[in-house]
Write a structure and sequence with these properties.
heterodimer; A: 310 residues; alpha/beta; Rossmann fold; 2 domains; six-stranded mixed beta sheet; four-stranded antiparallel beta sheet; 10 helices; globular; B: 246 residues; mainly alpha
Chain lengths: 310, 246
Amino acid sequence: MSVGELRCIGLEKVYDNRKRALSAVDFSVPTKGIFSIIGRNGAGKTTLVRILATLLEPSSGTATIDGLDIMKDAGELRKRMAVVPQEGRPLPWLTPLQTISSYLMWRGESYRVSRRKAEEALASVELQDVSDRLNHKLSGGMKRKTLLAMVMASDAEIIFLDEPTTGLDPISRQVVWDLLAEMGRDRFLFLTTHYLEEAESVADRIGIFDEGNLLALGNMDELRASMRYQYSVRMSCGIDLPEVDGRVLKGHDGRVQVLTTREEAMRLSDQFIGRDIQFSVNPVTLDDIFYNIAGRDIRNDVGGDEGGGE
Amino acid sequence: MKRVGNQVLASILVNAIYEMKNYPVVLLNTVLSPLSFLVLIFLISDGALLGEAILGGLIMSMFQSGISLQSDLSHLKNDFKLQEIVVSSPTSSAVYVAGMALSEIIYSSPAIIILAILFALVINVPFIQVAGIVIILLMVFLSSVALSFALSTLSTDIVQSYSFSRLITILFTSLAPVYYPVTLIPEPLQPLAYLSPTTYAAQLAQHMAGLTQVSSGMFVFDWAVLLIFTAVFLWVGYRKARWRDV
């Protein structure tokens, strides 16, 4: 029995409409810290989360979490896991306190204990002042925080969060990131996102998904190390770019980016300083890694869902 | 056992108590539907069909409670993803449905209490007859709950769910002879009325309340049909409901 890891073996999902959402996904990650799957809309992220969270049956393949099979041991796994679905919203006719305490009761807690834990959880996310306000009167950020506080208040050790910050403003997103980092200290968080900066900022390990395939997996250093070019040189357009050992990309903002080696980045820097050209040199970001691996920009979405849950 | 009790209570709180507490106006809705038909039948029949109308109100309340579960569960599942949150928790499908079904009864309790008081005042029958009527009401409720759960787990469209709930309620409680004896329907149309399980429930309840008489053969037949309807709906609920999507 493999303990302390999430393992997928040949996991496939083909929906009734013949859309292939997952293609023989194989990977394993330790069940501690924060693991984030990044990918464009329709990449298969939600399908993977729903299968692992025992909400959806795979077409073939298997997956285990801490040695428990997602199909055969679903009952046991459900005692240890919690999910915040992509489009999950707190019920508008409840208050945050009622939302969290009811959820804890579904997990088996008594009314009295669940109320106490709900109050503590709301205080920890600084929502104690609105604990008795109806959910429909809360801001989008407060609603998200309520759902996160809900799973935080539970005893679940494995938490699936499907795009927890989609639609939030940058400040609310930062608040949620702080919460995620706190939750990830003593639990395993499986997070999907298409905000690369989110994955880069909070995740210990990152999986890059595209068209139902896992293209890469590792921490930021490992992902960078897997790149042929590990440095990014950015400069304004219109300059006469010398011959370079690297990959030249032209951004939508008119700027030119060169993905290159450390040595080449240094050489270019020397040249640009000598010619008084404004530029910046940085290690490649997750954005660059995604582009390099998936062959396209993550934000160049064509939209669409993940094939539905049927 | 205590754990299951807490899980059932969670459903009741979410789907009935908290909504009634936070929005007391919703109580009016649950009272108005069954009582408005009762008043209408009472007025049209000049009071002669008051007993039938009270029984009809009780049957409608129980059936509507069960069928409302379909649109409520569908709403919670599709619009708020509540079912996904609950599926991935220690609560089982049976416990979730039991709690939600009880919540519907509690939601309808103002109407049921008023109708029960009217029943006690107007219909005087021995306890055994009352027990029989309660069993009939429970069978009506169970059938509609089972059917509702299966339909809700398959549903992905809330507008369709609400429309379907309303349609089934109208067909089975307003058009079917639930508030009045089946004999008041023109004879050529009576076979259509017997397509609805609530017709058998009403006929049995009216007979047990001493309001109408059916032959002993018909009495046994009515029970048999009601049992078969209940068993089939429970089977459909058990076999066809999807807790985990496929």
